[in-house]
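Tokens in:
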């Protein structure tokens, strides 16, 4: 049985999940950015795993690049497809939305799992940012050793075993998605969040009238570099969608951004800032090194 594990990752969580699954399932690990140059993607595998971070769960949760990847995937109908999305506490209906997208491509999602591997800023941190305009990075020099995060990592190791058994036996029907009651309770919150995203992204992109998903690409207009930048070009190399060019030692953003924050996270000089990352803390999965993030961006 051929197995292919496709993944997209900005800060390494989904990379680690994909690596662990590829190892356990004896599958081939393939980064989604590395195949996006192709017009269509015809997989020879019998089993396809799709691993990605949740972005904007109140909208759909699926990163734009993953949607584009699904559009390119062919002959899905004969395959066992499973997915794992990583998140920081609010995956919403991402798995259900993904299932719908895969159905539209003529396939079906056999199982979809969620894994929390990031900790969101506390309400106090957020309030300090909103009301006192304090930089969130000051509050968290890297929460890699926090017991809360260690618990999540340990939980993933247990879940890895469950997913491996499930997929190895080609079982179907495990979907980690909210039930009807929870969806009804969350509906007003999601509506509010969609409104807030729309307001924020209009500001970030400096464009007043475009659908939210189109504003995402343009939100990189709000990235800035500070005086610590030495023009090393790591941000350009780590960007999964080649959205940064370094011109005369200055990074320029090219407006097809995924908002994955890899450039912000992996800049060795802490030189990247701007409103787009105002609520972000520098974080990456403790197992992942910069070199792990650079290689997957090269086309296969
Ligand atoms: C633009 C953006 C939007 C996000 N939206 C959500 C969200 O709606 N819900 C959530 O739980 N996590 C959200 N996250 C957190 C990521 O899903 C989480 O940190 C994930 O594990 C990152 O995966 P990676 O390390 O593979 O990039 C968001 C992160 C980014 C960068
Ligand atoms: S990685 Fe940081 S220091 Fe290097 S060019 Fe980019 S912004 Fe400048
Ligand atoms: S520019 Fe930065 S945030 Fe945007 S896709 Fe590239 S690495 Fe991610």
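Residues out:
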């Amino acid at each position: 049985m051929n197995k292919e594990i496709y993944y997209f990752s900005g800060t390494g969580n989904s990379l680690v999940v994909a690596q662990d699954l590829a190892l356990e399932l004896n599958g081939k690990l393939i980064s989604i950015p590395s195949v996006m140059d192709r017009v269509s993607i015809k997989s020879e595998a019998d089993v396809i795993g799709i691993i990605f971070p949740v972005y904007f769960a109140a909208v759909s949760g699926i990163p734009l690049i993953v949607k584009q990847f699904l559009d390119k995937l062919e002959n899905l109908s004969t395959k066992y497809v499973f997915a794992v999305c990583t998140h920081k506490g609010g995956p919403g209906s991402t798995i259900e939305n993904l299932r719908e997208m895969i159905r539209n491509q003529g396939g079906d999602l056999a199982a979809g799992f969620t894994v929390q591997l990031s900790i969101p800023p506390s309400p106090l941190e957020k309030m300090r940012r909103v009301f006192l305009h304090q930089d969130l990075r000051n509050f968290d020099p890297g929460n890699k050793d926090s017991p809360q995060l260690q618990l999540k990592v340990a939980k993933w190791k247990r879940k890895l075993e469950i997913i491996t058994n499930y997929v190895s036996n080609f079982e179907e029907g495990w979907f980690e998605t909210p039930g009807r009651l929870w969806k009804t309770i969350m509906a007003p919150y999601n509506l509010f969040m969609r409104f807030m995203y729309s307001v924020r992204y209009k500001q970030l992109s400096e464009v007043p009238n475009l659908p939210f998903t189109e504003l995402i690409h343009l939100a990189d207009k709000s990235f800035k570099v500070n005086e610590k930048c030495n023009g090393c070009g790591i941000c350009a190399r780590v960007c999964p969608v080649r959205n940064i060019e370094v011109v005369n030692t200055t990074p320029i953003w090219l407006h097809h951004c995924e908002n994955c924050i890899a450039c912000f996270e992996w800049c060795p000089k802490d030189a990247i800032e701007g409103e787009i990352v105002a609520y972000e803390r520098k974080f990456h999965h403790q197992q992942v090194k910069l070199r792990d993030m650079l290689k997957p961006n090269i086309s296969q």
